[in-house]
Design a protein that fits this description.
Layout (H helix, E strand, L loop, with lengths): L16 H27 L7 H7 L3 H29 L3 H26 L3
Length: 121
């Protein structure tokens, strides 16, 4: 019986590790800060919160850029999580690839829809 130690050890996976772990944390912090900014702006406004207040909040160009940046961070955050789920739990390669492609197409579509919504205000 052969025992593999040290450099002979077989490591599997795509070796994403620390980079993706850090990306998940950074994007989560970015989304949390954005949520606090939006809540602060809403709490500091007077009167009922309706469509006009929401449209006014997102009408400034700087807010649209920040919002879209957060949407991109959200999409990257979701992609890392979904990719890891597909890699961990879906063993047939063809099905896993199909699900990853579907996820990418869906997320790109969501980003396009976000652009359309933000710049239509």
């Amino acid at each position: 019986m052969a025992v593999n130690y040290g450099s002979k050890r077989i490591v599997v996976g795509a070796h994403y590790g620390l980079r993706d772990w850090l990306a998940q944390r950074v994007t989560a912090v970015l989304m949390a800060l954005f949520t606090l900014i939006v809540l602060a702006q809403l709490l500091l406004t007077k009167g009922p919160i309706g469509y006009d207040k929401w449209a006014g909040l997102f009408s400034a160009q700087w807010m649209k850029v920040i919002t879209f940046t957060v949407i991109l961070a959200l999409i990257y955050h979701v992609w890392i999580g979904m990719r890891d789920i597909w890699m961990d739990y879906i063993k047939p390669v063809g099905l896993r690839l199909s699900l990853q492609i579907f996820s990418i197409v869906w997320l790109v579509g969501c980003a396009g829809w976000a652009i359309q919504i933000l710049w239509r205000l």
